[in-house]
Write a structure and sequence with these properties.
Transferase(Phosphotransferase), domain 1, Kinase-like_dom_sf, Prot_kinase_dom, nucleotide-binding, EC 2.7.11.1, protein serine/threonine kinase activity, 3 domains, 487 residues, globular
């Protein structure tokens, strides 16, 4: 009987007591698209401090070997230490790589900030710790490539910030595992130079953007901006000159201090520095860490009152609507009356994603029930060090597509309509979009997705009554005079 049931053992849900290498599973902790994290202890000492064991869902997943190699090269107090790695053989015969790291008993950054309402001085110290962690990564020629709040844990014991999830990272001479113009990462956190490269070269199958340390610093700037304002920063709409070269107008979002008057001016200036449109103006991680540390030393908790205030819980619209507790998104900020919310977090990334969505839709059968889309990874358990082997941009999960395509007249009268965006595909003279699964609505062509608020923002969509409307970028032919892209 045991042998007949053994092949039913699933890497995604190992029961407590399962032995993986020299480790015994104590509890399930969380799951990403590529891996599942368990709390584990040594087989020889079940009373030892727990560790985080990450097991690949797919046999022989090469991402794990790359993450192990990267972590083995980096040593820093704000990066979980690699403890072990190996291969676990499923009873069915398949081989699944795993790695073991220090267990971090902490809370994801945005959620932690909502709970503790830190001062500007505290935020400066956390950002300095993260910059030092990136300094250690960059000193080895490595990159994280997915710095964001979900990949940062604030440890309960001492309040330190730890940079986690190196599944999207890269070390020198590492093999490319992800096809496409851009490396894995989260669209809302991509640098302007990465987005411009995508706009310029997405049609060239040989082109692949080579991320630099400045990309990590920009992502840290996005993280800081969102941490203190609750919004993603935004740069201007792209434009293309007569030669076919794309340009960005520059950073157009309000300075953090204008959205949050409680912010320390030095923190405001350093966030804007990280978000500079020119990568050389961001400096190095070491330079940034020194500036953050000096700013933190020059301020005091008394002079920097709490710069974040949790938003009150939302009220239910109907008796059947669940009243949820505030999410990490729910941060109150002082906003001038009538100030419009930005329609995009990163337009260039949205344009590239729009083209990608078109390709997906045109490649799939019309009766396909699901559309893969990048959505936010949620850690389901407190203290989870890392719920997957890659960042948001590398985690495509199935999201249901609405089976019907309502017309404008079919929308409830009281529902707002998403506003068309510059460069968005428009319906033809008959009011139809290029593909049957695109929704013609309010003068634009959209894709309807079932994702949460964070996922919708990351795709530069508009969330209306629980449905995310993602704009489809114009799918036009590039001029023949377009300069060649460098692979």
């Amino acid at each position: 009987m045991p042998s007949s049931q053994a092949p039913e053992l699933k890497p995604a849900l190992l029961p407590p007591g399962t032995v993986v290498g020299s480790w015994r599973v104590a509890a399930w902790a969380g799951r990403g698209v590529h891996g599942t994290v368990y709390r584990a202890v040594p087989v020889t000492d079940e009373h030892a401090e727990p560790t985080a064991l990450k097991l690949a869902l797919l046999p022989r997943d090469p991402r794990f070997a790359r993450e192990v190699e990267l972590l083995s090269r980096v040593r820093h107090a704000c990066i979980p230490r690699l403890r072990d790695s190996g291969i676990w053989q499923h009873p069915g015969g398949t081989l699944h790589p795993f790695l073991v790291m220090d267990w971090v008993d902490g809370t994801p950054l945005y959620e932690w900030a909502q709970q503790h309402t830190p001062s500007s001085q505290h935020v400066l110290r956390l950002l300095a710790q993260l910059a030092r962690a990136l300094q250690a990564v960059h000193a080895q020629g490595c990159l994280h490539r997915d710095v964001k709040g979900d990949n940062i844990l604030v440890r309960h014991s001492d309040g330190s910030a730890l940079l986690t999830d190196f599944g999207s990272g890269r070390f020198p001479d590492a093999a490319t595992l992800t096809p496409g113009t851009l490396p894995p990462g989260t669209p809302a956190y991509r640098s302007p130079e990465a987005c411009l490269f995508e706009l310029q070269c997405f049609r060239d199958p040989r082109a692949h953007y080579a991320a630099q340390p400045a990309d990590d610093l920009y992502s840290l700037g996005v993280t800081a901006y969102r941490l203190v304002t609750g919004e993603y920063p935004e740069f201007g709409d792209p434009s293309r000159d007569a030669s076919g070269t794309w340009h960005l107008e520059g950073f157009v979002s309000a300075a953090p201090l204008s959205l949050n008057p409680s912010l320390d001016p030095q923190l405001n200036a350093l966030i804007l520095r990280m978000l500079s449109m020119r990568p050389e103006q961001r400096g190095t991680a070491a330079e940034l860490a020194s500036a953050l540390e000096q700013a933190a030393q020059g301020s005091s908790p008394e002079s920097t009152p709490p710069c974040l205030v949790p938003e009150p819980p939302r009220t239910a619209k109907t008796p059947s609507t669940e009243v949820s507790t505030p999410t990490p998104d729910a941060l109150v900020r002082v906003t001038p009356p009538g100030r419009a919310q930005p329609w995009q977090s990163v337009f260039a990334a949205a344009a590239a994603l729009g083209v990608w969505i078109i390709w997906v839709y045109e490649s799939m059968p019309l009766n396909a029930p699901e559309l893969p889309t990048a959505v936010r990874h949620e850690a389901d358990a407190a203290g989870l060090e890392d719920g997957g082997t890659a960042g948001l941009g590398d985690e495509a999960v199935a999201s249901s597509v609405a089976p019907s395509v309502p017309s404008v007249s079919g929308e409830p009268a009281e529902s707002p309509l998403p506003e068309p965006k510059p460069g968005q595909t428009r319906p033809n003279a008959k009011g139809k979009c290029a593909h049957p699964r695109q929704v013609p609505l309010n003068g634009g062509c959209w894709v309807k997705l079932s994702v949460d608020r964070e996922g919708c923002e990351a795709l530069s969509g508009t969330l209306i009554e629980g449905t995310c409307y993602v704009p489809i970028a114009t799918h036009e032919r590039q001029p023949t005079s377009h300069p060649a892209c460098t692979p």
